[in-house]
Amino acid sequence: MTRLYQKIIILAISLLLGWAGWKGLNAFFYRGSSELSKQNFGAANVKKMNKSKEEWKKELSPEQFRIMFEKGTEPAFSGKYNNFWEEGVYFCAACGTPLFRSEDKYDHGTGWPSFKEPFSEAFLEYHNDQSFGVHRIEVRCAVCGGHLGHLFPDGPKPSGKHFCINSAALNFKPKEEALKEAPEVATLAAGCFWGVEYQLSQLPGVIATVVGYSGGETINPTYLEVCTGKTGHAEAVQLVFDPKVLSYEVLLRKYFAIHDPTQKNRQGPDVGTNYRSAIFYHNEQQRQTAEKIKAELPQSKTYSSKKIVTEIVPFKTFFRAEDYHQMFYQKNPERACPIK
User: Fold this and answer.
1) pLDDT of residue 251
2) How far is CA 256 from CA 67, 191, 203, in A?
3) Which segments of the chain are extended strands (E)?
4) What is the C-alpha to C-alpha distance for residues 27 and 18, in angstroms, rounded to an integer?
5) What is the pLDDT of residues 243-271, one digit of tens each?
6) Burial code of 199-219, b = ≥16 C-beta within 10 A, e = fewer?
7) Which end of the chain is more exposed for a tag (fewer CB within 10 A), N or C?
8) What is the pLDDT of residues 27-45, one digit of tens each?
9) Cα 321 to chain centroid, rounded
10) Which residues belong to the active site?
């Protein structure tokens, strides 16, 4: 009987290891779907950190350097954050940029920390990865360029995103500590995102901006798909800002000043639900601030008791727009939509 039990235990362990290996390989070699093939690689408006590999090698541990600047991968189920569920923020292990929040972490079962949404799309960059003879999307920190992991389209709804990230590329900080260090994120829609991004990016305290699509149901839509009005998405700008320099209230007052919040599903000559006015709040404090300012506007001389149609809805997900849309006004001022 003892030998039988030993065989059963060995068989069970073999099956478990086989399952784990399959899940890991499935994530590692996942070819993806049509959503993956049309991922937008547009570069966000963010300040880069320029350091040589030699400098990073001196600052990081051998394992961190191997993964982040030699594009290595830690073994499945070996990372310290794979089965880790404390509340807080995951920062870049190299440059300290906030990359992911604990509330967006979930167990995908592949053996690496998995996230359904980044701290901000502005802090990530994407690259085609054809290594091992398959197409994958490499994810890097947009500030220092360090390799983090890969993005797969087999994540949970509504985004379908699965950020499969190496623990060694992350540095977790508990919630209270992170709140003191991390900037804040705002996602706003006010018509054509070209001029909106430019206007808001000029405010003191804005750290980074990226344009894209939010508020709809279609996963990773293209610009042409959004323009049909069938995706439900609005052209939106996601901003990262320092709340010590720029409060969310001041940001929203500038937001309302640069567009007409009384126009429903349009801004000037641009007509459609994709041009609607919308505030996608990221937390309860943002919601309360947005509701307060919206309620005040009809009493101002500017709007003469007109109805403010700006939507105030919870943020769900944000998809980056194509590269030519990023910082469009700065690159093409003569072609951009007029701004107030």
Assistant:
1) 98
2) 44, 12, 14
3) 45-46, 88-92, 98-101, 105-106, 114-115, 124-129, 136-141, 147-152, 162-165, 170-174, 184-190, 206-214, 234-241, 266-267, 270-271, 277-281, 311-314, 318-320
4) 14
5) 999 999 999 999 999 999 999 999 989 99
6) bbbeeebbbbbbbbbbbbebb
7) N
8) 444 444 445 445 567 788 9
9) 12
10) 164, 192
- Note whether 202 and 334 are within 8 A (CB): no
Q: What is the pLDDT of residue 3?
A: 58
257/251 Cα distance (integer angstroms)? 10
Give me 336's structure tokens.
């951009």
265, two tokens: 């599903």
Tokens of residue 193, six digits: 């995102």
pLDDT at 132: 78
For the four alpha carbons of 101, 104, 107 and 111, in that order, the dihedral sign comes to negative
Q: Are 124 and 142 in contact (CB under 8 A)?
A: yes
Q: What is the pLDDT of residues 143-152, one digit of tens each?
A: 999 999 999 9
The beta strands (E) that lie in 4-119 are given as 45-46, 88-92, 98-101, 105-106, 114-115
Count other C-beta atoms under 10 Å from residue 76's C-beta.
17
A 10 A CB-CB count for 296 gives 12
Question: What's the pLDDT score for residue 277?
Answer: 98
Query: DSSP letters along 208-247, please?
Result: EEEEEEESSSSSS--HHHHHTT-S--EEEEEEEE-TTTS-
Q: Write out the two tokens for 37.
A: 């093939």
Question: Which of the given ranges, 26-30, 152-156, 244-248, 335-339, has the highest pLDDT on average?
Answer: 244-248
Which amino acid type is present at position 141?
Answer: C
**Structure tokens that stand for 321 in this block:** 């727009």
Whole-number Å distance between alpha carbons of 272 and 263: 11
**Which pLDDT score is estimated for 82?**
96
Q: Which has more confidence, 161 or 40?
A: 161
